[in-house]
C-alpha cells in the first residue's frame, strides 16, 4: 500500500516539475518579447521626436522665408 502511494506521489511530483519547466520556458519567451517591445517603443519615441523636430525646423525655415 505504501509503495503505491509513494509511486503516485512521485508521478505527480514529476508531472508538476514538467509543468513548472514549461512555465519557466514560457516566462523566458515573454521576457524576451518584452525586451524587444521596449526597444521598439524606444525607437518609435525617438522617431516621433525627430519628426516633431523636423516639423518645427520646417516651420522656422518657412517662417523666415515669408518675412
Word description of this protein:
By secondary structure, the chain is mainly alpha-helical. Helices cover 97% and strands 0% of the residues. The chain has one helix and no strands. The protein has one helix spanning 2-66.
Provide a concise account of the structure shown:
The chain is mainly α and 67 residues long.
Helix and strand layout, with pairings?
Elements (H helix, E strand, L loop, with lengths): L1 H65 L1
What labels describe this entry?
single chain; 67 residues; mainly alpha; 1 helix; 0% strand
- Biggest beta-sheet profile: none
* Through-space gap between termini: 98 Å
Tell me the structural class. Answer: mainly alpha
Query: What integer is the average pLDDT?
Result: 94
Helix content: over 70%
Please report the number of helical segments: 1
Using the CA coordinates, give the radius of gyration.
29 Å
Q: Oligomeric state of the chains?
A: single chain
Please report the total strand number as a whole number: 0
Shape: rod-shaped
Amino acid at each position: 500500500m505504501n509503495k503505491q502511494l509513494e509511486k503516485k506521489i512521485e508521478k505527480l511530483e514529476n508531472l508538476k516539475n514538467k509543468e513548472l519547466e514549461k512555465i519557466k520556458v514560457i516566462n523566458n519567451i515573454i521576457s524576451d518579447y518584452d525586451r524587444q517591445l521596449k526597444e521598439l517603443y524606444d525607437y518609435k519615441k525617438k522617431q516621433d521626436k525627430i519628426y516633431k523636430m523636423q516639423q518645427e525646423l520646417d516651420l522656422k525655415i518657412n517662417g523666415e522665408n515669408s518675412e
